[in-house]
Design goal:
This protein is of the alpha+beta class. The chain has one domain: Carbon-nitrogen hydrolase (Nitrilase/N-carbamoyl-D-aminoacid amidohydrolase), CATH 3.60.110. It is built from ten helices and 20 strands. Strands 2, 3, 6, 7, 8, 9, 16, 17 and 20 form a nine-stranded mixed beta sheet that branches. A six-stranded mixed beta sheet has the order 12-13-14-15-18-19, with helices on one face. Strand 4 and strand 5 form a beta hairpin. The chain is globular, with a radius of gyration of 20 Å. The relative contact order is 0.18. One of its GO terms (molecular function) is hydrolase activity, acting on carbon-nitrogen (but not peptide) bonds, in linear amides.
Length: 343
């Protein structure tokens, strides 16, 4: 039996901490005008997704317990008037709500000292990833697991791998992070991801129940040409950007870059974020977001430092309408158009 709490307005965020402030799903009058749809038509042409926010540590079991709890306690919205509390089984949660839940980069492990991530790195058929495959299968839900420490080509390197698992527990696709974070952060410390990570070389998109997904990881966000390829060459509809943004870069650039990627590609963006203090030496910005193709934030946790889930609907009619009324795919110039200017 589900216990229900009636809300006076739609609710799109679940936090594991009690909070009083909520962010309802956002849909502007302009977007309604673009689609010309009623609420019932919108519901018929949409599918629900969820994005998690968490603080991973250097404890595989603890992090899996957090991910499992977020999946199993996923609050499900029925007609946007109720939020279900105390769901008794994970299958009830998944069947009533989201078809995909996205977790942030380093969901399984964040090391407290240099070398720890290399020590726990495993192949995708190892016991760590198989736990998450079982979770997806038992919960009948797709999982986006961004930034798994996959064993690399040698003992000194791993791969930062984004893994998508279907609701049968099968790995449907993987993407290895292309752009590695070798950066000096003002007022913080230097990062050199390439010292222990093998860069990926392939652009990856995969079909799913929530549309065609474009897979990326964190620092990729700063390179718009990757997202242009995903949209215009690989026909992505939803861009996944799991991340572990630093606090200074998150404050300055996180939301701006995410909204830019959504607007310039006319895609939904799902950005699951690590948050808070992982260890004495490392903390993350947080602020998990779901953004529609018009650049509107439609999913966000009330507190960017909390552990929890935000949900939103992928509205295919809205996506198609925006792309039809502003056909940038037709207006784009071919690559050979951009020849060096004559002096």
């Amino acid at each position: 039996m589900l216990n229900c709490q009636t809300l006076s307005r739609p609710y799109n965020a679940l936090s594991l901490r009690p909070r009083h402030r909520v962010f309802p799903p956002i849909r502007s009058h302009l977007l309604r005008a673009l689609t010309g749809e009623s609420n019932s038509e919108m519901a018929a042409n949409s599918v629900r997704v969820a994005a998690a926010q968490m603080t991973s540590i250097n404890d595989l079991a603890s992090n899996f317990a957090t991910c499992s709890r977020l999946v199993k306690n996923l609050f499900c919205i029925d007609g946007l008037d109720y939020i279900y509390m105390g769901i008794e089984s994970e299958k009830e949660a998944a069947s009533a709500g989201a078809k995909l839940i996205c977790f942030p980069e380093n969901f399984a492990f964040v090391g407290a000292k240099n070398g720890e991530s290399l020590e726990i790195a495993e192949p995708l058929d190892g016991p760590i990833m198989q736990q998450y495959c079982s979770l997806a299968r038992e919960s009948s839900i797709w999982l986006s697991l961004g930034g798994f420490q996959e064993k690399g080509p040698d003992d000194k390197h791993l791969c930062n791998t984004h893994v998508v698992i279907d609701d049968n527990g099968n790995i449907k696709s993987t993407y290895k992070k292309i752009h590695l974070f070798d950066v000096d952060i003002p007022g913080e410390r230097s990062y050199k991801e390439s010292s222990f990570t093998e860069a990926g070389k392939n652009i990856v998109a995969v079909d799913s129940p929530v549309g065609r997904l474009g897979l990326t990881v964190c620092y990729d966000l700063r390179f718009p040409e990757l997202y242009q390829q995903l949209r215009f060459q690989h026909e992505a509809q939803v861009l996944l950007i799991p991340a572990t943004f630093t606090v200074p870069t998150g404050q300055a650039h996180w939301e701006i870059l995410l909204r830019a990627r959504a607007i310039e590609t006319q895609c939904y963006v799902i950005a699951a974020a690590q948050t808070g203090k992982h260890s004495e030496k490392r903390q993350s910005y947080g602020d998990t977001l779901i953004i529609d193709p018009w650049g509107t934030v439609v999913g966000r946790l009330p507190d960017r430092l909390s552990t929890g889930i935000t949900v939103a609907d992928i509205d295919f009619s809205l996506l198609d309408s925006i792309r039809t009324r502003m056909p940038i795919s037709k207006h784009r110039k071919p690559i050979d158009f951009w020849k060096p200017a004559s002096l």
